[in-house]
Specification:
There is one protein chain. This protein is mostly helical. It is built from one helix and no strands. The longest helix is centred in the middle third of the chain and has 95 residues, at 2-96. The N and C termini lie far apart (140 Å). The chain crosses the membrane at residues 7-37, 43-65.
């Protein structure tokens, strides 16, 4: 009788240990999955931030280029009008010579 009770107690202890081990394994797996998800989300956020920064830099460069182009065009136009003015002033002198 005592042997049967001991065997039953041992079986119950083994079952409890197995259940605890299974619960620990499940918790570890869940923690690993959560860590992997956090890492993936972090990488995606970093990539999105880098892409946004690159787009902003490209837009700023395009704006600067457009400003410089318009500045160069207006400078070229003003230079060409200055050249015409100089020619109109020097034309009578050239004709005289």
């Amino acid at each position: 009788m005592i042997i049967i009770i001991m065997i039953i107690i041992i079986i119950i202890i083994i079952i409890i240990i197995i259940i605890i081990i299974i619960i620990i394994i499940i918790i570890i797996i869940i923690i690993i999955i959560i860590i992997i998800i956090i890492i993936i989300i972090t990488i995606i956020i970093i990539i999105i931030i880098i892409i946004i920064i690159i787009i902003i830099i490209i837009i700023i460069i395009i704006i600067i280029i457009k400003i410089l182009q318009s500045g160069l065009l207006s400078a070229a136009e003003s230079n060409s009008s200055m050249v015409r003015d100089v020619h109109s002033y020097t034309l009578p002198i050239q004709l005289f010579l």
